[in-house]
Every structure is written in C-alpha cells, then in structure tokens.
Structures
1.
Amino acid sequence: DAMVIQNPRYQVTQFGKPVTLSCSQTLNHNVMYWYQQKSSQAPKLLFHYYDKDFNNEADTPDNFQSRRPNTSFCFLDIRSPGLGDAAMYLCATSRGAGDEQFFGPGTRLTVL
Amino acid sequence: AQRVTQPEKLLSVFKGAPVELKCNYSYSGSPELFWYVQYSRQRLQLLLRHISRESIKGFTADLNKGETSFHLKKPFAQEEDSAMYYCALWSNYQLIWGAGTKLIIKP
C-alpha cells in the first residue's frame, strides 16, 4: 500500500543530544509537512516543503531543522533537544496545496 | 486573524443518539474546511472536506457562511465513532487546526 512511513516509532534521547527523525512516502506527493503534537493538543506545523521549496513557520524554534534530499524522504533534526520538545512528531504529505493530507503514524520523542 | 474554534473538548453520547461536533471559523473569503479524525492507536486521517459534499461513515458537515460554522453531524452514533475529531481551515498554505473534540460513544 502507498503510504507515509516514519522511523523510528519511538525515540528516546538525552537532554541536548541531537536526534534525527525520518519520514518517507510512496505516494509521490509534492508537499511534505512536519508537525509537533503534544498531548491533548492539535498538531502544530513546524515546516513544510513544496517540492524542494522549504517553508519555515515563524514560531518554529531554531533548534529544529529539516532536510528533504528527494521527493520520497524528509528528515527532522533537533539539534539540542530540551524537555519541552518531548512530543509526537507527525509527518504528512499532500499532492498539492490544500489537498488532503496523508499522515504517518508519528514518532514519539522522549527527552530524558 | 484566521481561527478555528471547537468549543467542546469532550462530548459523550449514547450509542444510537445523534451527534453534533461544533466547529466555528474566522476567515475572510471563501473557506476550505476539513474534518480530520484520529481513532485510538491509528494515524490522523481525513474524514471529509466541505467541497466534496460527501457523507463519510454516516457523517455530514454543512458549511454555514452566515454563522461561520462547519458542524459535523451524524444521526445515529456508533461505538466505533469514538475518536478525536479535528476541524481545520486551509489558509496561507497551511491548515489552521481547532483544538479538537474527543467523542466518546457510550454503549
């Protein structure tokens, strides 16, 4: 099945230790998104890519970076995770702007 | 500013009863509105969007521009409808999300 895959599903890191989360898609969608979702809250958009064009949300901390080396893959790098960065990180894709977003299962990040 | 409001954090109804999940929006122009759903231990997924005018799993949502609402309705709730429901507005190349409503269907 075509889908959005996130690895790992669970990630534990130490305070200040860099971590990379990955997302891949087999849908060949142009747009990819990274969201942060904390418990009982709505997803919060961190970045999105329209093809190779990177769009950073104004309130996304500098601690968060992203890479999209090709259409299929997208990475979220957290350079120095703090306790407040513990959350579920969701990757999503869409064919184009305003189209249905297809979500991955998420990566739950724990920061010790 | 664009905003989506879901006034109920939690809604609990009995199986077979009607369900209405409220969503109000603030937007200048013609809105594109969506309902996304997250079932327990499953990924977030689209339930319906207003331009498709479809009924999915018995749910419908009508855009009311006068009341700036996009409430989600189902005439007879089923236990499998228990989930987290998010209303979202497409604006400035992103989705503006409501806070979500947790729907619990009691047997």
2.
Amino acid sequence: AQSVTQPDIHITVSEGASLELRCNYSYGATPYLFWYVQSPGQGLQLLLKYFSGDTLVQGIKGFEAEFKRSQSSFNLRKPSVHWSDAAEYFCAVASPNDYKLSFGAGTTVTVRA
Amino acid sequence: GAVVSQHPSWVICKSGTSVKIECRSLDFQATTMFWYRQFPKQSLMLMATSNEGSKATYEQGVEKDKFLINHASLTLSTLTVTSAHPEDSSFYICSARVALADSPLHFGNGTRLTVT
C-alpha cells in the first residue's frame, strides 16, 4: 500500500526567507508524486507533479521539488516566500495504474512579516 | 484550463435528512471521478472512485449505503449523504480526470457539509 509522511506539522518562516517542506513516500515502484496547496475553506491547487524524467520539477508560484528515489523523498522548496504563501501544503502519491491519491497529513505554513 | 465545479459550496442540513453534492466537469469528459473527505485540520481521505456507467468502488471503511455515488454521465457525478448525522459534517472534495495515461487530475473547490 502506498503512503505519504509529512514530518512537519507546522512551519513558520519569515517573509523573504527560504522554505523547504519535507515529504517521504512509501510505494513499491516509481509513483506519481504531487504537491498541492490549500487555503482555508478552499479546494486544492496543484503546485507541481512528478511522473518521470528530470528529478527536479518546477512548479507554479516559484516552487520546485526534487524527487530522490534513494531517500523516497519529494521535498518542496521555495527560495523566497511571500505572505501569500501562508497555507496548508499536501504531498500526495498515486499509482500510475489508478491515479488514486494518498495524501500526507499536511504542513501548515505561517509567514511572519 | 479544465474546470471541475462542485455544488453546493456549502450546505447545512438537519440530522436524518439526505443531501446531494454534485461534481461536474465543465470542459472535458471525466471518465473517472474521485470523492474525498476532509475533517477539520486533517488530510484528505479517499472515499470512493467512480467510473462513468459503472458502480463506484469504495475504500475500506466507507459505508456505501450511506454515501451513495452516481456517475451516470461523463460530466456529472453525485455524492448523496443519506440519513446524515453530525459526525458526517465534513469537507467533501471531488476530483475528475479522463482515464488516459498521464492525463491530469482536476479538483473541485469542495463542499462544506454541516449536519445539525
């Protein structure tokens, strides 16, 4: 069975500072990997995804993530956060066969001025 | 870009009544739709997968008689919460895609259900 672990429940970062959100997954083969962002009471917005190929993936809003097979990780990074980046971030894994997403518990990002 | 619309965005119902949530793909034919449930400050949990024209496949622990899913057309799936109780209060989110390799998954904006 596939699963996702996001070790950090809550991260506080200063505006303009860098951000890294950790994600570890468990899956038997190479999965599809995703990062989503959710604002309070809203749906999900896809930041980026990895299917295959280049292990460094560029997404929207200046985010990037790196797939490291040896570490079963797919960490999300942003060099300089903006106050609007405050939200809940979810890492997800899916089997290429059925596209059923399993989500991590989420990381809440707070941005301080 | 592709859009998935959920309706209503929020609903309040009395305990014991049923409520229907619609999920529509507005500009593509969604052969597969997924229904997720999210409790406050928690992650999303997959409830069921529905493929157009066939019965939904429910995840373990999800009561299929309580959460009725219908996917009668390529653009519409409905989730009906039957005989709702306060513990069914949650945020329900659908997602949809075309069942082709690497086709993207599109999420609706969710429905906040409150059962009083």
